[in-house]
Design brief:
Blueprint: H1 18-42, H2 61-64, E1 82-88, E2 92-97, E3 111-112, E4 122-129, E5 133-138, E6 142-147, E7 161-162, H3 163-167, E8 175-181, E9 191-196, E10 200-205, E11 217-218, E12 228-234, E13 239-244, E14 248-253, E15 262-263, E16 273-279, E17 284-289, E18 293-298, E19 313-314, E20 321-327, E21 332-337, E22 341-346, E23 360-361, E24 370-376
Antiparallel strand pairs: 1-2, 1-4, 2-7, 3-22, 5-6, 5-8, 6-11, 9-10, 9-12, 10-15, 13-14, 13-16, 14-19, 17-18, 17-20, 18-23, 21-22, 21-24
Amino acid sequence: MPDDIHSDPLPDLTALSAAVRAYIETLQAENRSLRAELEQVRGVRRPAPPAAPRASAPRSPAAERGEPEPLNLPAVQYPPDTMLISLSGQGMLKRTPLNAYGKQRRGGMGVYDIKLKDDDAPAFLLTALASETLVVVTTRCRTFRVPVNTLRLGDVRDRGDSLAERLRLTEGEKIGAVLAVNDANESDRPWVLLGAATGVVRRLRRNVIGPNLADGTILYDPKDGGAPTVMCLSRGDGDLFLASNTGLGIRFEEKLVSHRGTRGMRLTPQERLVGLTPLPADGSVLLVSADGQGVRRPMESFAASKTVGGQGKIAIKTDNLVAALSVSDADEVLCISAFAKLIRFDAAEVPPRTSVAQGVNVMELRGDRVAAATVSTPPG
C-alpha cells in the first residue's frame, strides 16, 4: 500500500455506461472508507483527499463534513422472521432477513441488492413477517394471496424468483400493487385502500382480500378508474394523504372515499398518483423523489381539504416523486434504486419541514434514480 493512501489517480469513467460507472464509484467509496478506518486503527491522521477533477454528484452529509462514509453503523436488530422484500417491474421477487442489511447515514450510496436483468429494475420494496401474506393486485385487477414463508429465502446480493410465472400472469399483465397483511390483526386495520394512477381511490372491507379470497379474483373492472398502483391498510377513522409524481399532495377525511371509487385527486394526463397513506394523529409523511431528495412534512402544517377531488398543493419541490409514507421519529427508512442499490437509515435523520422545501439528500445517486421506498418500525 502506498505511503499516501489518497494519492491514487482518478480514472476517467465518462466513456462507461451509467450502470458500470455507478458500480465502480461504489467500490471506490468503499475502498476510501476502509482505508480511512485503517488510518484510525494506526492512529495516523491524513489530509482529506483532493476534490475530484470531474463534475461531482451530490455528496453525503458525512462527505460534506470531511468524514469517511460509514458503511455499517450499529443497527437495531429485528426479530429473525422480519423480511425485506424486493420486487421488480417484471415480477422478479426476493426476500431477505432485514437484519442482513447494514445501516448507513442518510445520503450514503447503499449496497447492491437483488440481481436483475439489464432491462429490469426494482419497482416495489416492503417489509413483512415470514408468517404474513402478500396481497398482489395486477394491472387487470386480478388479486392473489402469496404466503411470505413460501418465497425462497435469498442473500442480500441474490437473484430473485419469478413471481409473475408463479401467478401465471397473462400476456401484457403486470403487477400493479402489493401489500403485506397479517390476518390475525384484521380488526386493528379493517379497511384496505387502493389508489390508481388516475387519482381514483377505493375503500374496501379488508375481508375482501382475506384468507377466503380465490386466487385470480377480479376486485373491480380496471376500465373504471384504472388498476391500483398503490395500496395500504387503514383504521378507517382518520385522514388520508395522497401525492402525485409532481410533488402535489392533498389531505382529506377517509370516510369520503367509497367502495365504488372516488376521485381523490384531480390529475392532468402527465401526472399520476404515487402515494396513498393513512395519517396517524401526530405523524408525518415522508416524501422521497427519484433524484434522492427527501423531506418529512408534519401533517399539522398541511391543512385538510373538506372535499375530495382537488388538485392539491405543493408538498415537496420535485417533478418526480416516488413515494409518500407515514413515518415517525422511531422508524427506519429503506430506499432502493433502479440499479438495485439499497440504503437503510433512521427516519429522524430527515429533518421535518413545515413549509414547501426541495428536501435533503437521502441517497447519493450517480447516473441512477430512486425506484421505491418503504418504512419499517423497529421492535419495542
